[in-house]
């Protein structure tokens, strides 16, 4: 990295370097979790996976986007029956995200992007950006976004057993096999636990233990490191393309 292209990692910068940034610099706040991932994956899986996505894309935005440290505490109350899970309650978590965005707005930034790596963060995350927009409804120069990384990629390959993200599933297990197989336990012995909700299209309140005694949802036994690399490449490419759209926004209009 050359001297005229500053390293845009918030924790590495001085306050004066942050002050010198354009207010239109997108601020990326990665949010994940520390929670149970079945018998075969570590508690930090969501944070490890999102951290890898950020590691892969951040060099492309070395002088164009500011990356905050990954927030490992998520909304994981539905996993609390499994020891080791740490969670912020939904309302508390919403307030935490809201406060982080407020900090950056106070510092003058106008494009706030929460990049998410845990399904349980989705509802409070969406509520956060909704509430922020209502609070600052007179300012059309602000952009508030909450995006989950696995929704930003294209279709997965036909040889995958799963067509959607589960939990400690084929997708997550494959990515962990690619990143650090030493952290992956006996996934081959894990039975398939189908996703879904028999009351669709209604949203249903649920806890993990009523869906899966082991804690995983999906087909981890189908995982391979090669699939993991394909997924990481797909999701990293999607996340990078998404940030390019944020950078290209004209600063005022609905469509950009």
What does this molecule look like?
- The chain has 256 residues and is an alpha/beta fold.
- The protein has a domain at 10-155 and 236-248: Creatininase (Rossmann fold).
- Helices cover 32% and strands 7% of the residues.
- It has helices at 15-19, 45-57, 90-106, 122-135, 170-179, 225-248; strands spanning 27-31, 66-67, 111-116, 143-148.
- It has a 4-stranded parallel sheet with strand order 2-1-3-4.
- Helix 2 (45-57) packs across helix 6 (225-248) and helix 5 (170-179) packs across helix 6.
- The radius of gyration is 19 Å and the shape is globular.
Helix and strand composition category: alpha/beta
Q: Order of strands across the widest beta sheet?
A: 2-1-3-4
What's the mean pLDDT score? 95
Into which percent range does the helicity of residues fall?
25-40%
Q: Sum up the overall morphology in one term.
A: globular
Over all CA atoms, what is the radius of gyration?
A: 19 Å
Largest sheet, if any? Answer: 4 strands, parallel
Strand content: 5-15%
Total strands: the figure is 4
Indicate the CATH topology of the domain at 10-155 and 236-248: Rossmann fold
The top-level CATH class of the domain at 10-155 and 236-248 is: Alpha Beta
Query: Could you spell the SSE succession in H and E letters?
Result: HEHEHEHEHH
Instruction: Name the poorly predicted regions.
Output: none
What is the CATH homologous superfamily assignment of the domain at 10-155 and 236-248?
Creatininase
């Amino acid at each position: 990295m050359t001297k005229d292209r500053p390293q845009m990692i918030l924790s590495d910068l001085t306050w004066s370097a942050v002050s010198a940034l354009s207010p239109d610099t997108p601020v990326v706040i990665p949010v994940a979790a520390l929670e149970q991932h079945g018998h075969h994956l570590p508690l930090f899986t969501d944070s490890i996976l999102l951290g890898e996505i950020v590691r892969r894309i951040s060099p492309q935005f070395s002088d164009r986007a500011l990356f905050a440290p990954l927030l490992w505490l998520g909304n994981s109350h539905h996993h609390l029956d499994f020891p080791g899970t740490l969670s912020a309650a939904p309302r508390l978590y919403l307030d935490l995200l809201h406060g982080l965005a407020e900090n950056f707005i106070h510092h003058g930034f106008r494009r706030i992007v929460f990049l998410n790596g845990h399904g349980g963060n989705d509802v409070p995350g969406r509520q956060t950006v909704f509430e922020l927009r209502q609070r600052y409804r007179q300012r059309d120069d602000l952009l508030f976004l909450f995006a989950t990384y696995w929704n930003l990629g294209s279709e997965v390959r036909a040889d995958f057993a799963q067509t959607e993200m589960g939990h400690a599933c084929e997708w997550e297990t494959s990515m962990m096999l690619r990143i650090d197989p030493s952290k992956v336990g006996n996934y081959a012995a894990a039975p398939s636990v189908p996703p879904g909700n028999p009351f669709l299209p209604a949203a249903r309140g649920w806890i993990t233990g009523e869906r899966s005694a082991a804690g995983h949802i999906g087909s981890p036994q189908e995982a391979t490191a090669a699939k993991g690399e394909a997924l990481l490449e797909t999701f990293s490419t999607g996340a990078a393309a998404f940030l390019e759209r944020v950078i290209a926004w004209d600063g005022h209009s609905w469509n950009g």
